[in-house]
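In the present case, backbone shapes were mapped to integers, as reproduced here:
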Amino acid sequence: MKKHLLLLLLSSFIFNSAAQGTDPLRTTDFEAQEIWVDSIANGMSLDEKIGQLFMVQAYANSDEKHQESVIEMISKYHVGGLIFMQGSPKKQASLTNKYQATAKVPLLIGFDGEWGLDMRLKNTYRFPWNMTLGAIRDNTLVKKFGQHLGQHAKRIGIHINFAPVIDINVNPENPIIGNRSFGENKINVTEKAIAFIKGMQGEGVLANGKHFPGHGDTASDSHHTLPLLNFDKARLDSIELYPYKKTFDAGLTSVMTAHLNIPSLEPDINLPTSLSKNVVTNLLQGQLGFQGLIITDGLNMKGAANYASSAEINVAAIVAGNDILLIPQEISASILLIKEALNSGELTQKRIDFSVRKILKAKYWAGLHRYQPIVLENIVEALNRKEDEVLHRALVKNSLTLLKSTAAVVPIRNLDSQKIAYVKLGDAENDAHVNMLKNYAEITVVSDTSLKGIVEKLKPFDLVIIGFHKSNANPWKSYKFTKKELRWLHGIAKKNTVILEVFASPYSLLKVKSFKNIEGVMVSYQNSKLAQEISAQLLFGAIGAKGKLPVSIGTNFKEGSGITNTDLSRFEYTIPEAVGMSSYKLALLDKIADTIITEEMAPGFQILVAKNGKVVLQKSYGYHTQNKIKKVKNTDLYDVASLTKILATLPLLMKAEEEQRISLTDEVADMLPRFRNTNKAGITVKEMLSHTAQLKAWIPFYKATQDSLTGENLSSYYRTIKSKEYGTKVAENLFLKSNYKDSIYKYIARADQREETGYKYSDLGYYLLKEVLENTYKKPLNTLVDAYFYQPLGANRTGYLPLEHFSKKDIVPTEKDNYYRNQLLQGNVHDMGAAMLGGVGGHAGVFANANDVGKIMQLYLQKGFYGGKRYLKSETINKFNQRYFSDEKVRRGLGFDKPQLDPEVKATCGCVSEESFGHSGFTGTYAWADPISGLVYVFLSNRVYPDMENRGLIERNMRTKIQQVLQDAILD
């Protein structure tokens, strides 16, 4: 007897201890809260109190008839809350104001926004699903997600957001939870849920833990039937209930009860847990001590609706212990039946008052005691902020999960020795991914109608990236491989080195029988545009891998798996706000672009802006020519003119200086013996690079090959057909005598030196440096710079002689030459001297797009390191990026241009640091890097179209005006 009494007292102590949880709805000013609740509750009629228990549906995309029905619900039946379903932000806000104005007691506005308001409302922001967030290790990011979602909800007048889902997704075949869950690990799920709850509730929006007591291990959908969870209480307590107990301690304000069949909790197998007093009152409120709002799942769902009539279900839900009936049906009949239950004693006035007071406390908690109508102005903009995208990008970056990387296949290195193909599997779009991949390397998209055909096409490739893309429309979309796709995956992997990227649920990998032949496996979780872009960046080492798998994939990859690695210091592509710049201020560039194009300073151009290694603007404006037929694309190539000096000659010269093959004090006579007895003999490398060698600015070599009277090219120098004797291609169908190169160097040798000392910009030194470098390395300059720099960097759209490597349509025309080559120059170098050297000059000849020029400038900014490889020593960059003749008022470094010393000279905007460096080009190009601000700025244009007399871009300093805009866009 004593033993039984002891057990009874012990169990009573445990029950009471659990039941004495804190009240999450109690505010810090609880005395004022109680006064407000009393003032409202004491003035209510029974009908008004019953009405508070209903939260009915409201659609923001519906007609007047629906609106009238909602108004009737409010005015006639006194419903206490609305749950908005579909529509647009402005319409919902407008209707909310209208409905609130109708209500005697402010309405509690609910919403299903698990991954953002986009779950129900168009033109609002979509964040990642919970499964994606489950892969993140840094829970402060999840808290920020909760904060942002809370801010959005608050802005549009939502008081309770039915999130987060805290079901533990133990069952991979769960048809309704799946991607909506943070994963299978109860601790991870709980930590994520708490972070989200604190974030959202910190913004004054009630959170809602769902679906109690746990929907994660079901094989059916409660929207359509009553799912069965046939587990004992011990299992439920250790898994399903774990996150609820912890979130209650963390202050969760509300819970949603699920429509489930759990025999161990409710013996009546036909009674859903949402309608079970054993579950809602005894377990949730009694044993677990939850004092917050208890809300049913939608009562229109088959899991509940099949139990009885709608009115009977509504009464049963109240009897069970729920406070709010979500999407109840038959409101009028339900009110009558509730009154009958009160008369019969099945319900008591005290029971009704208990829920009403909780609802009113929740309304006070959400700020409805000082209700103000929603401000409609700029509401769409407020729900789609730049800071939302910054957070979204951070969430995706931190979620991407690298599961396998045999021989460190990820990140991809050695771009100069790998031919890379991309194969798409799945039925969703993949353009964003492929386009981003192509920012890093040459990627060939390969497809075929048969496995045999595609395997044959893939033979020449060293690496195959396989992207599995499935719909990102919602978390319930199919994510599985087809049998055909699995055959293709294994067939390709058997013959090739493969990286598999999964833009779908990680559960898709369950159907992959073996990963033996798949060298790399990465889970990106979703097929959103950002996921596609950021995944490509991870593959190439722009960012490191951080994510951990939130669910197990059979025995192949356990929950928590994930390889972490560091980035390779390659360009990352993001938005200005991610690096502390303003998109709003950068929008001024569009106006400047319009001026440039409208006033025909250039037909079109490319701009690239990067800060701290992150590209924040990569944009093309205008057309190839002024006929406005072909728009400029980011991949198009421009003749970069004198940027060649710092993109080709200078990096190779730096390398040679490091290797002690060339010294800055070496003299021309020592390097080029033919100049020993000339006035160039004593010129040093340093003087040539600083433009203090007293050389002429340039020599029009081509004029010596023309009739002095007519200006026609002399037949003794040119042919229209290439031959051994006439083998130097100057332009299309125009070939110069092969030995004329020697004449060019003779002209340079014989040319008078300038009498004045000091600075004078000259191309001639770079003719000499080209010869020196080619003699030193025994190879042509174009071959050398391509092998040592462009190919390893992934600057695959940069180089000399572009017509040998690219389609003509991808090359922007430069000038309508009517003075020498007498044709439209497109793919043949504009500079006449470089053309007479066969298109390869030390001073001109390189063609590139802005993206590749940016990579080389970033290489300099990173002190010679890029993409996991050191190309040049830090001290070498420092040595070349300084002035050696500043006492003589020479602004130039070695090869690099530097900010002006004379304020009348506009080499820069005057707003960059003294440590900055760059160069400009005659064709309307400009590249500048600033170690202090971290900015890289590239501008490529064909301002010499239609001819070089088009000087508006230069005379009006448009390139440096843009530079000023960039500097001004940096936020303090």
Observations:
- The CA atoms of residues 385 and 594 lie 26 Å apart.
- The chain has a mean pLDDT of 96.
